[in-house]
Design goal:
The complex is a heterodimer of chains A (234) and B (102).
Chain A: H1 9-24, H2 26-35, H3 40-50, H4 53-64, H5 69-94, H6 98-106, H7 110-118, H8 124-156, H9 164-176, H10 183-199, H11 207-224
Helix pairs in contact in A: 1-8, 2-3, 2-4, 2-8, 2-9, 3-8, 4-5, 5-11, 7-8, 10-11
Chain B: H1 3-24, H2 33-56, E1 57-58, E2 61-62, H3 66-79, H4 84-101
Helix pairs in contact in B: 3-4
Classes of the chains: A mainly alpha (234), B mainly alpha (102).
């Protein structure tokens, strides 16, 4: 990595402002995690080791709602799949091996990838600097705020008395809201809501959530290939 | 070992494996547009389902309680383009108020 002096000031500014604002969401995760029954240590380990917001919210959400560890891990992993796709995009830019690649992989998330891509007009050095600065920046703030949120929630006691049980779905809503751009995306969101609620009384907790991934797969396949219905007349 | 510990370890291992694989395999394997499309749609489905389940269920029962008000307020906050912390805090505050006074 080049010295910071070679990095455009705007890249540094973008990276740090994203790091701080996104890192601050960690407070909501720490609180949600403790409210779901995870310990402060477990909450902090999730932020240190999983380090992917949506996946972390998913595992504590599913287990907190009474789902099994397996259905929680499956949901979290489906949400983490996009980090792998970000890695595909970042690898040719970063060109790192060994330990550096391990570190780069760990901080390949929405924000580091997003900032790197947004610096394209400033050249590859600025893109790389944006990736590393944002990755490390979010990592530091996300973990500090997770600890603060977890300790705060632990001190509060009953989650419902402080509205934490509503703050968790509100946090999920805040995560999904910016993704609902097109009509078909909103239709998918609404279908997922109905499918998950319809399945809730019928199958073990956690499964209704994973089942909605099939809606996404179905829509993804159909969108790119006209639906061919072959109805045989009998 | 508890479900929580399995969850912490399993999620962390899988999350890192996906990130590391992405950094290590040639781009052509996953750059198919269909995979990219499904990848953008999966979070929409899962996160929407999580909102619904966290708001309207208690174990395997459907319920409407103080959380519904909180999430309703969050929707209003999002429609007013409020930043994330305000969305979460307004949901918590309204839900807690209803929990205490009703």
């Amino acid at each position: 990595m080049r010295g910071v002096s070679a990095t455009p000031r705007s890249t540094i500014r973008d990276s740090l402002s994203v790091s701080l604002t996104v890192g601050a969401y960690g407070i909501a995760f720490g609180a949600a995690s403790v409210a779901a029954g995870f310990s402060v240590l477990q909450s902090c380990l999730l932020s240190l080791l999983t380090f992917s917001g949506a996946s972390q919210f998913a595992i504590v959400g599913v287990i907190g709602a009474g789902g099994t560890a397996l259905s929680g891990i499956a949901t979290a992993t489906l949400l983490g799949f996009r980090n792998g796709l970000y890695g595909l995009r970042m690898a040719p830019l970063l060109k790192v091996k060994g330990t550096k690649r391990i570190i780069a992989a760990h901080i390949t998330i929405d924000e580091s990838t997003g900032i790197a891509l947004s610096q394209e007009s400033l050249g590859e050095d600025a893109m790389r600097a944006g990736f590393w600065l944002t990755g490390f920046g979010v990592f530091i703030f996300w973990n500090l705020f997770t600890l603060a949120g977890a300790l705060g929630a632990q001190a509060m006691g009953n989650p419902a008395a402080w509205g934490l049980d509503a703050a968790v779905p509100a946090a999920f809503l805040g995560l999904v809201w910016p993704r609902l751009e097109s009509t078909s995306e909103r239709a998918l969101g609404a279908s997922a809501v109905f499918l998950a609620l319809a399945l809730t009384p019928l199958v073990p907790a956690g499964l209704p959530i994973i089942a909605t991934a099939l809606l996404a797969v179905g829509m993804g396949i159909r969108n790119l290939k006209p639906l061919r219905l072959r109805l045989r007349k009998s | 070992m508890t479900a929580m510990w399995w969850g912490v370890i399993g999620t962390s291992v899988a999350a890192f494996a996906l990130k590391y694989l992405g950094q290590s395999i040639p781009e052509r394997y996953l750059s198919h547009p269909k995979i990219q499309k499904i990848n953008t749609l999966i979070p929409i489905a899962l996160l929407s389902a999580l909102v619904a389940v966290q708001t309207f269920t208690e174990k395997t029962k459907l319920v409407i309680d103080h959380r519904a008000l909180g999430v309703g307020v969050a929707i209003v906050a999002l429609l007013l383009r409020a930043p994330f912390p305000i969305v979460v805090l307004s949901a918590a505050a309204s839900s807690a108020l209803l929990y205490h006074f009703v």
